[in-house]
Specification:
alpha+beta, BirA Bifunctional Protein, domain 2, 13 helices, binds adenosine-5'-triphosphate, binds manganese (II) ion
Length: 463
């Protein structure tokens, strides 16, 4: 018989008819005259209960099936008398594909902390309710990202993972090498000779696909990248990973205003989609993880984002009378406490801050006429602070060369980037959204390590 997914069964209007469910037992409760098995197949948060009656030929053997076992159950779909469930299966045929030793299975009823799940049970945690929900929402968000851009004619560009350039100029990159770590070839001066390395030059894992995306935007007009990025920063925080995914649209013939409109429409689309398509999982997060998450998302979808310059934002913060851990003054980067104050207390909606001092932003942002600020834009949301960082790019060759120089970067690494400013340069803009920060924000999960299947962080790549 064909398999029925639990999600589809629970969407039925009426009980009746035979169904076949394949899944894992969350719990098995053997009573004197009946066995209840809560089955979950990952298609949705809810379980479907299978009821095994005393007259079942395998009743005795089925009593000792363990939680975690992989089962296939065929039977009549009946109305359930149990609380909180509409249907149950009156089990007729049961196949035990793989039993699980109930004395050893780690995800028994008692609550296991997220930390233990992450550190010792990352291989089994997708079976836990919270993680099933996280990874379904993560999937829905990836799909919504592609839908948003594809519907608008954007081309998905697969930018390289191995690169010779440091896009952010921040120097926190993982080296990619095949040289012998014990006895690498040396130059006459005694340095490691990366000229003898696989790529005949030093290479790294990318920190961003932006520079390459720019090249493609300056040919295909509207593009985006969505792929893994890597940062060797030793940030042991609940918001940083060494390996994370980033979404980076890039648009030619577009200035910072078009870029802000795109970012606002993009976030609204993503939030609307999860609220509509992941209602069950979102209700779970709202009840158990973060009580304000659905309300916050609804509110963002319905509000126009406020737009402020950095100078105006600093002015508001200075006049706020608020006591901040990090004092504010013009020229310093905004901390998340400042960003949150602006969104949560001062404005009460998402805020896009633009025109930051050039000294706190990357070399590629377009310099304003005041020669002090650049056309950067950060989108700030409640609870999190910055969710998106972007800019209009510097499209003038002479200014770009000067900025590279000021930032102490080696211009010989960027000759290909300069070429796009030499041949058919045009104003263009884009932004980056850290995908795990997005999943974290939407679900309300406190630790970023719990929204990526296998987190890579300092001292941890065990799986
Ligand atoms: P932060 O100040 O939080 O370290 P950043 O300024 O280094 O962020 P960008 O270089 O602007 O971040 O990167 C773009 C986006 O990528 C950020 O807005 C954030 O969502 C995400 N991001 C950056 N670093 C990490 C990380 N280590 N782990 C997960 N996401 C990250
Ligand atoms: Mn950082």
């Amino acid at each position: 018989m064909a398999r029925d997914m639990i999600r589809d069964i629970l969407a039925r209007e009426k009980p009746g008819g035979p169904v076949t469910v394949q899944g894992w037992a969350r719990t098995v409760r053997a009573q004197k005259h009946v066995i209840f098995m809560q089955l979950n197949d990952g298609s949705c948060l809810a379980d479907l209960q299978a009821v095994v009656a005393e007259d079942h030929p395998d009743f005795a053997a089925l009593r000792v099936i363990g939680a975690g076992a992989a089962l296939e159950v065929t039977g009549e779909l009946a109305e359930s008398a149990g609380k909180g469930q509409r249907f149950e299966i009156m089990a007729d045929q049961i196949t035990v594909h793989g039993d699980a030793d109930p004395t050893a299975y780690p995800l028994q009823k008692k609550r296991v902390s997220f930390e233990v799940m992450r550190e010792k049970l990352a291989h089994l945690r997708p079976r836990a309710k919270t993680f099933g929900a996280v990874f379904r929402v993560r999937n829905a968000l990836s799909h919504a990202i592609h839908t948003f851009f594809q519907d608008r004619g954007f081309v998905w560009v697969h930018t390289p993972i191995i690169t010779a350039s440091d896009a952010e100029g921040a120097g926190e990159m993982f080296r990619v090498t095949t040289l012998d770590p014990v006895a690498p070839p040396r130059t006459q001066a005694g340095d490691v000779d990366f000229g003898k390395d696989f790529f005949a030059r030093p290479t790294f894992l990318t920190v961003s696909g932006q520079l390459e995306a720019e090249l493609y935007a300056l040919a295909l007009s509207n593009v985006y990248t969505f792929g893994p990025t890597f940062r060797a920063e030793n940030s042991n925080t609940s918001r940083h990973l060494a390996e994370f995914w980033m979404v980076e649209p890039e648009v030619a013939f577009c200035d910072i205003h078009g870029n802000m409109d795109l970012a606002e429409a993009f976030l609204k689309h993503l939030f609307r989609t999860v609220l509509d398509d992941c209602a069950e999982d979102m209700a779970f997060f709202n009840q158990w993880i973060e009580k304000s998450t659905c309300k916050t998302l609804e509110h963002i979808v319905e509000s126009p984002f406020e737009r402020l310059t950095y100078t105006e934002a600093v002015d508001l913060l200075e006049r706020s009378g608020e006591k901040f851990e990090y004092p504010v003054s013009w020229g310093k980067d905004l901390q998340s406490e400042h960003e949150r104050y602006l969104c949560e207390k001062k404005i009460g909606r998402p805020v896009i801050v633009t025109d930051y001092p050039k000294d706190i932003k990357a070399f590629y942002m377009r310099l304003n006429d005041d020669a002090k600020t650049v056309r950067g834009m950060d989108v700030l949301v409640p609870r999190l602070g910055e969710i998106i960082g972007g800019s209009q790019r510097e499209d003038r060759l002479d200014v770009l060369e000067r900025r590279i120089d000021e930032c102490g970067l080696d211009p010989s690494h960027y000759w290909w980037y300069f070429d796009t400013r030499r041949f058919g340069s045009v104003e263009h803009a884009g932004f980056g959204l850290g995908f795990e920060r997005l999943v974290q924000f939407v679900t309300g999960m406190a630790n970023i390590r719990d929204v990526i299947p296998f987190p890579r962080t300092p001292n941890n790549a065990d799986y």
